[in-house]
Design a protein that fits this description.
single chain, about 120 residues, mainly alpha, two-stranded antiparallel ribbon, 4 helices
Length: about 120
């Protein structure tokens, strides 16, 4: 997939506009994690590389994105006030669940079984 497709895939699975929000610049910084060798055998570090991205790489980028979201939310805590309880730890649990989900997808993707990507 090309860069716009990879970025759209990452955005769709990361939901950067949901709390905690990730700005466009931060999401763009995740894209290189999805880069792979192109059809001509050039690596992303080669000058002749044609920008090429894999689903597995996108999962890697998404997992990192959820890690960044967790870092932004880690200072939140549960509290009770005026008879209301706010369980902010539920957000951290959700974020950690998403991070683990995408990290597992990197490990179990067909392109990572038996070959390095």
């Amino acid at each position: 997939m090309n860069a716009p497709e990879a970025l759209a895939f990452i955005v769709a699975h990361l939901d950067p506009d949901a709390d905690p929000v990730l700005d466009t610049h931060t999401v763009a910084l995740l894209l290189p994690l999805a880069a792979v060798v192109d059809v001509d055998g050039y690596r992303p570090s080669d000058d002749q590389w044609t920008p090429t991205y894999s689903t597995t790489g996108c999962y890697r980028a998404i997992a990192r994105g959820w890690t960044i979201k967790r870092g932004k939310a880690v200072g939140r805590y549960d509290f009770t006030t005026d008879g209301q309880t706010f369980n902010r730890s539920q957000l951290l649990d959700h974020i950690e669940h998403q991070r683990k989900l995408y990290a597992r997808l990197v490990q179990t993707s067909p392109s990572t079984l038996g070959a390095a990507t």
